[in-house]
Amino acid sequence: MISRLRGVGLGSLAAGWGIFFLATAGLAQTNGVGGGAAANLAELPPDPLRLIIARDEQRIDIYRGTTLLKSSRISTGKRGHETPLGVYSILGKSRHHRSNIYSNAPMPYMQRITWSGMALHQGHVPNYPASHGCIRLPKAFAAELFKMTQVGLDVIVTAGDTTPKPIEHNVLFRPSPPGAAIGSHDEGDAGPASDPATAAIGLADMEYMVDRIEAYRNRSTKPIRILITRRTGQQRMKDIQRMLFELGHDPGDIDGYLGRNTGGAIQAFQRSIGEPATGMVTDELVSALYKAVGREEATGHLYVRQNRKALFDAPVAIAGAEDEPLGTHMFSLGHFDEGDTGAWTALTVGDDVMPTPRATLDRLSIPAPMRERIAALLVPGSSLIVSDTGLGRETGKGTDFIVQPR
After folding, report:
1. Which of 8, 29, 241, 373 is the most buried (most CB within 10 A)?
2. Beta 328-333 vs 344-348: how paired, if at all?
């Protein structure tokens, strides 16, 4: 039996933040590797569980925070059907499931991680990759894991180290308490919010502060998912359209597409700066537009999802050359109480050739207003993914971010 803890009341922020699994008695007696003594789970903070797949070692590890609870052998995709590395989450569960792709084959204790067919499920587990891309689990472990998990749980498939490591960095977001001061940043500050306890709050702010505290208490208790990645061509075109509009030209809808209105607005801008009115989008045009509006060109983009739906997105800066890899890194926020800054862990999805998580964070610059907006939404279990590869094609309706490194 799985015991569960549901928080109630407002005395602690953790109290309203959903269900956190404590453990089964059997799990508490089992060490994941090496046969040593297991952690005393009753003494662990109620961090959400994470499933980390060591693809090259054919192993799954169950973690709470930085504590390994249990491991099991698995079987991933065979040659030609390799299980892709990446960041996933559980999208749905079915105790008695049959494959829609492979001749109605039984897939007991199925836990789906993509809508296109990847899942964890009970199956034959030899000591080598043998599936068509799914992650096969031994029978007893599949049943046990099925009872432990819930929709939304993180599943990470990596070829490198599976151990989440504690990390502190000023780019990582810090939870905002309900009474945080308004406007505590200078515009463009990339660092964390200043201490709200020392920030001055004028009388004119008080009514707004009451509204903010009420909104804070009534906000969603679901973890937010943040992705920072390279910008796409469509995002660049939206920037062009927004800047043309700011400069008094009419680009039409801000939709990221080069239509007649946008082309005409580009020609009007080119004439205004004494350039030939070609209507073409070039690096020189983009640089001229950014210079005209007095801003630096954004090289990255930040997306936020919550409860498997898109919330908002915005440009951010990524230092360094465009061909300098970021790697793919998953940063997870653990349990915290009211007034805490929260503890983050880092895990690289891939191999050791990639930049370290800290080196990747060093290259990011996030505007202060965006930091404050995100800080007010943070709850335990929230995560940040930084990746070169952008939104995976599997990301969509009913999913968190699905990121698959190439």
Report:
1. 241
2. antiparallel
Q: Look at residues 119, 116, 150 and name the one whose alpha carbon lies nearest to residue 223.
A: 150
- Give the chain's count of helices (H) and strands (E): 8, 19
Which helix (DSSP H) or strand (DSSP E) does residue 25 occupy? Answer: helix 25-28
Locate 400 and state its tokens: 């968190």
Is there a contact between 223 and 16 (Cβ–Cβ < 8 Å)?
no
pLDDT on residue 234 = 85
Cβ pair 261, 251 in contact under 8 A = yes
pTM across the whole model: 0.76
> What would the two tokens of residue 184 be?
């505590």
Q: CA-to-CA distance for 21 and 18, rounded, in angstroms?
A: 10
**Which pairs count as long-range contacts for 51-54, CB under 8 Å and 24+ apart, including other chains?**
51/120, 51/145, 51/149, 51/153, 51/154, 51/155, 51/156, 52/155, 52/156, 52/158, 52/162, 52/164, 52/347, 53/83, 53/135, 53/155, 53/156, 53/157, 53/158, 53/162, 54/158, 54/162
Instruction: Give mean pLDDT, residues 1-24.
Output: 32
Phi, psi of 257 (to 5 degrees): -120, 145
What is the identity of the amino acid at 373?
A: R
Distance between CA atoms of 188 and 177, rounded to whole angstroms? Answer: 21
For the chain, how far is it from start to end, CA to CA, in angstroms? 40
Q: Report the 10 Å Cβ neighbour count for 177.
A: 18
Residue 168 CA: distances (Å) to CA of 64, 189, 275, 342:
18, 18, 48, 10
> Is 309's pLDDT higher than 60?
yes
Distance CA 27, CA 3 (A): 11
pLDDT band at 206; cut points 50, 70, 90: very low
Four-point Cα dihedral 277, 280, 283, 286, nearest 10: 70
